[in-house]
Amino acid sequence: MAKDLDMAPSRKKKIGVFDVVNYIVFTLVALVILVPIWKVLVDSLNAVGVYQFRLFPEDFTIDGYRTIIETQALYRPFVNSVITTLLGTVLGLVLSTLGGYVLVKNEMPGRNLFAYFLLFTMIFSGGMIPEYLVMKQIGLVDSMWILVFKHGMNVYNLVLMKNFFENIPESLYEAAEIDGCSPMGIFFKIVLPLSKAALASIGLMFAVTIWNDYSNVKIYIMDPNQVNFQYKLRNMVMDGDTPTTAYKVSQTTLFNAGIISAILPFMILYPFLQKYFVQGVNIGAVKE
Amino acid sequence: MAKKKFSKSGIEIRQKPLGLRMWNCRGYYVMFLPVFIFVLIFYYWPMLGVRYSFYDYKPVGTPKFIGLDNFTKMFTGIGAGAFWTSFGNTLVLSVVKLIITTVASVVVSVFIFEMGNMIVKKTLQTIIYLPHFMSWAVVASIFSLFLSPSATGMVNNILFHGDTSKFIYFLADVKWWRPIFYMINLWKETGWGTIIFLATLSGINPEQYEAADIDGATRMQKIRYVTIPALMNTIITVLILNLAKVMNMFESVFVTYNAAVYDKADVISTYIYRQTFANALPNYGYSTAVGLFKSLVGCVLVLFCNWLSKKTRGRGII
What we know:
CATH class of the domain at 93-267 and 295-313 in chain B: Mainly Alpha
Largest sheet of chain B: 2 strands, antiparallel
CATH topology of the domain at 93-267 and 295-313 in chain B: MetI-like fold
Number of domains of chain A: 2
Helix content of chain B: 55-70%
Largest sheet of chain A: none
Order of helices and strands of chain B: EEHHEEHHHHHHHHHHHH
Order of helices and strands of chain A: HHHHHHHHHHHHH
CATH superfamily of the largest domain in chain A: MetI-like
Number of strands of chain A: 0
Number of helices of chain B: 14
Strand order of the largest sheet of chain B: 1-2
Oligomer: heterodimer
Shape of chain A: globular
Helix content of chain A: over 70%
């Protein structure tokens, strides 16, 4: 899919007014996106907070990042985020591949019932409060595991996985069955190895969602030892919930270093995985 | 008696008895079991909870059945103004946001499509997808620092040359919150929105452009009469898909709003949240009732969009 994007129709090589306009638009759009991010990055490495936009830090320091690592109140949420994201992604992938695979098995009696069972959840939901009351009964309130379980089961991603499995040719299954492969065997030996790209895309979708979650933490978790990094960060920057221990950098530097730490994992991965991210959108949207 | 099944060519398909077919598929049932359990616990169990919308249910004491009182209170009670405000805001914010981000995505995709230089094009795509991966919490933090009315807020200092008396607290000003909210949404989601349009554009048959060249069409004319019409279907699809989610607006508002701008910013989900978790004596029954109203409107919207989708493009959205 991603490769198709390059296939713009060939144009005359002459540079016209339109090309000039196009380059200007490109520059403006890129600047609008990058200026806020660049400012945060530079400010996170600058010892004093300034309002000016600078290309490079004037008074370079890494104390902002050091403070985050050294302050338990900031470090713990970061570790929680890493743990919940990893486990939630694994659980999410297991459930959506299992469910998606079963849903393409037309010969299975009750397949349609299962499909409706899942689709109904996309039309109607209990809502925030009944969900909260159920989580309270299961004992997931005030625990970071809520993030793993709440995001692990995602019907939308399951349907994406199913769409992907539908494109695996039926003959492959038949050949494996004739060779005496069990349904489980087919799933592990044939379906999963063929689906690496889809697993990467959907796994990334899970990871981004869980890592980035703020509202579920706000709703379900009070215990400061159980919150995730996004929650801690937002409260610190916007509600002034700064660590009580004295820190050696300016508040602005600390805030900006926090923001960069929160986006760092995906910013590092992103250039390498861009095609899988883009692919994920296309599995879901343009199914033709 | 099971009814006989026939293949397309009219040959009877002999089906094994149901019990045997189920036995043969036992592996699949086992595989579905974990999904079944999770969906039951995390989706269906909460649905049972909607019964509390007919109860008076406080954290202490037992729930008491009160009929439709919660709904009366919601629609016509003393606090009904706040409810209707949040309902109206949900619709306005979602729909305006949807329209302007879609338009911006279309415009940007056309520019990207028209860019001949592959390296420049790839670079811009990489840049504009970036903000999508930032959480709402991060985006809110970035812009709150960027727009802050303090000595380190870039926008205020540049606009007013450091004259603190003129500083605007953009995120806490009733006049400014909505425009800023739309701008933040544009910043975050426009780039990501272009992916689907670019996929469509890459599918346009180059012969259409060649034919337009032969007819002597200018570049603008080609955009106007070939590119834009080719995008129309996708635009409609995107609008329909997102219209179904109008009621879901939550996190983007939740992280940027504050008490000063409730009038313009409060949406149904944030209203439910405050009624329950920012309330010394929450009534779960009442907030469940508001949630049920939201779910039902959402449900109607999904079914409507599904119908609309079948009408306009021949397949549903669910």
